[in-house]
Write a structure and sequence with these properties.
heterodimer, A: alpha/beta, Rossmann fold, 2 domains, six-stranded mixed beta sheet, four-stranded antiparallel beta sheet, 13 helices, globular, B: about 290 residues, two-stranded antiparallel sheet, binds adenosine-5'-diphosphate, binds magnesium ion
Chain lengths: ~270, ~290
Amino acid sequence: MNALTDIAARPAAAPEKAVVLSVRNLESYYGPIMAIRGCSLEVREGQIVTVLGANGAGKTTLMKTISGVMDPEKGQIMYGGENIAGAAPDKVVRKGIVHVPEGREVFPLLTVEENLRMGAFVRNDADGVRKDEEMVFSYFPILAERRRQAAGTLSGGQQQMLAIGRGLMARPKLMLLDEPSLGLSPLLVKEIFQIIRRLNREQGVTMMLVEQNAKVALEVADYGYVMELGRIVMADDAKRLLQSKDIQEFYLGVQSEESQRGQKRWKQKKTWR
Amino acid sequence: MDVLQLLVSGLANGCVYGLIALGFVLIYKATEAVNFAQGDFMMLGAFITLGLTNEQFWGLPFWVSVPIAILCMGAFGYLLDMLVLRRMFGQSQVAVVILTIALGFVLRFAAGVIWGHQPVSLESPIAGKDVRFGGLVLGLDEVTIIVVTVLLTVLLYFYFNRTKLGVAMQAASQNQLAAYYMGIPVKRIHSLIWALAGAVAAVAGILFASKGSIDPSIGLLGIKAFAAAVIGGFGSLPGALLGGIIVGLIEPFASYYIAAGYSQIMPYLLLFLILVFRPHGILAQVHRKKV
Ligand SMILES: Nc1ncnc2c1ncn2[C@@H]1O[C@H](COP(=O)(O)OP(=O)(O)O)[C@@H](O)[C@H]1O
Ligand SMILES: [Mg+2]
């Protein structure tokens, strides 16, 4: 991808970009529990699309269903002209969707370098893999310093960087990022989000970003969805969502008289972690 | 010289225990199930080799039978996982454990039907010969067992640390969910681990059968190997081998220095002490899965 034209084209051209991922009426269950209740959304090429929502809203489940770790009961996941709903995870990775899971989930006893190599498991181009490893190190220099260290000995922030870097090693077109800010200091969150934005612009990776930290997510995102109890309840441009009264009240902590009376359910349900 | 010979023969036994223990640990690390038929895998590997080699049965050359038997046991492990265990996915590990116990009985019975229950000897070219190192006379069988175990250990070390599939096996056992996310075919990897456990068991069986007669109940040796695996820290491959060697060494020295009847208890006494004082084993990896 050409980074310069991408940045230049960004403000005006956003709505015309091609849809890379289209989720339609998705339903997913944990046994008898319906976690995704007819969810529809779109992700456009080159964008960062964020899915906001309180703890337990179903954001992680949505991502697991897209990446094929869970099979949906109903609905479609259209990607690259076909329905990938229910496809095996390795097939989904090969098609260019990679899931960077909530809570890092690195391979704790493998070295940083081995973790990265595992990110490239589905690839067979050894030269390309080596180049991409250098690319990852250029974004996360601390990982280069620790390349021979076991991943389990890294700090939380470094593990998050490793999880993102490992995901990049699959050369994804679309990256599913599940709560990269979880448990990190504000400073680190800022750093990681800057890198996420750079990866989006410079490497042309389309991002679907799940966050509870609505402010940072909306600041980097082009478009946003709000999820509640397994459904999408709001969708708009990220800028407009950032201005929206509801979002300000319930996700950004801007107090108004009405919210202090607190009669809305999603406020009560919300728990910060 | 006595002590040296005791040492070598204990080491050789220990290597066989260690290889069986290795099978336990391989499967436990990858799937969190314990294959209680691992000893019977070893027995089956030994009998397949015997069936192929001995004049009384097929009469193939020993060096032809060995790779065939190893491949057969590898295929057996792979298919067992693919056709049976994969279907039990989602059930508790206890179900898998019980299945492997039952499988052990079936294998012992089947081997008895095919090859008889009487002790038989594998017509192995390394059986019953001596090698001399200066004044020291050692059994070729025992020396071979030690050498083969060392080679196999080195081979496995390189496989798990230097090959993509080997590292992926480690990855899948450390964090199965993350392995799925990376597109690692976890189910096929589980089958391959079972194949590897089967192949290693076959090697252990062939080595064991080269130093004495065998019958279908030798699989019960698996219990000693299980103790070895626990002593080494269930979940550590070097620990399994080390545990095997410790058990192997304790036995001859205990029977040399301690009255018969008490000496056989020694490996289990050690197991007991380890469980009490170092419950994660000697070489336990200091890492717990996140809740
Ligand atoms: N493994 C599981 N088994 C059963 N229920 C689950 C499981 N994981 C999540 N859930 C339930 O599914 C719903 C959605 O969870 P999740 O997708 O993790 O939400 P989020 O990522 O938005 O916090 C929640 O009600 C949660 O309790
Ligand atoms: Mg979540």
